[in-house]
Amino acid sequence: MSIEAEAARKSIGAKRSLESAEAILEAAEAVLIENGYSGFSIEAVARRARAGKPTIYRWWPSKTALLLEVYQRQKRDITYPDTGGIEEDLFIFARSLFAQWRDTPAGDIFRSLVAEAQQDPAAAEALAEYSAGRRAHTGKLIERAKARGEVAADVDPSQVADMVSSYAWVHLLTGRLDEDEAMLRRAIRHIVHGIAVRR
Amino acid sequence: MSIEAEAARKSIGAKRSLESAEAILEAAEAVLIENGYSGFSIEAVARRARAGKPTIYRWWPSKTALLLEVYQRQKRDITYPDTGGIEEDLFIFARSLFAQWRDTPAGDIFRSLVAEAQQDPAAAEALAEYSAGRRAHTGKLIERAKARGEVAADVDPSQVADMVSSYAWVHLLTGRLDEDEAMLRRAIRHIVHGIAVRR
Hints:
Two copies of one chain form a homodimer.
Chain A: H1 3-11, H2 14-35, H3 42-49, H4 53-59, H5 63-74, H6 86-103, H7 106-117, H8 121-147, H9 157-173, H10 181-193
Helix pairs in contact in A: 2-3, 2-5, 5-7, 5-8, 6-7, 6-8, 6-9, 6-10, 7-8, 8-9
Pfam families (chains A, B): TetR_C_11, TetR_N
Domain HTH tetR-type (chains A, B): 18-78
Keywords (chains A, B): DNA-binding, Transcription, Transcription regulation
């Protein structure tokens, strides 16, 4: 959930609203499973959660914002490893992202979200916020590697996360999630070690 | 144009069909400018080019295939430099792609094409074929650097092209084409030299 949504939720107070938010998210998940992406709507979620539409909109400014949180909950299995080596950490992370998109409905949901963001400004905003959050989160792997002295001090962690996730996004968007692991490892290795001949 | 479309065109013979193809592409370009992406259709192009729909479909298997060729023609200004240094070559290429997408209608057209490919299998196929062709083309920059001994022999040129263009695609798709040049250069540098501390 976004910081604003979190703040809004807190402002209406404590336990009750946390339960409502959870109920809405569960209803949204059920609607998505039953109706698919194209049949997903705030109306359907409100009906199922027995909540008012204004309550939902108070916490999620758009359908896409709500969908992204449902998507993120489904994607809990993504691995953010801590092997002590940045190449291995990033490879395991990227491999788990490929697998999740390839082997579960999460991939199709995310493709639809990206498509919607190209056509609808509210969706674009929600996707931009979501992906910035993801870059910051994945960036923690690189921050740790900087702290270990493994990665150069002037490297921007979220940019490296951006490079890894962009590679994954475009594989999703062009139907290439079946790329073999050796290729994926090479991509990660290029970012970590570069392609230039060592002199 | 795809190899198959090229072959099909040749099989119906010489000059006349090349002229027709050119006329259709020009008509398609005009329709796109006048009607925008959402108003673009094979029917409209056929009317404008005074061609039959079957003629168009003989060369372009889908609306998206035709749109991608029009898009590619508009994108002629993309620079594939040969400065003698791979970092500079890739940076200039990526910067020109960012600029073209940011400053001309090409960016919105391509966003729409990517969105359509998430919803329509024929569009997905056309985009997959197109992007494979682009990776091979951009890969030539890396092939030259390999020939110069600047890039390691086991590097896959089209994979490096993939990494650079994926970074650009996701910036387009998440509204971040205004990223400053220094950041873009760092992304390219990470691929060329890596992020690891040199020991």
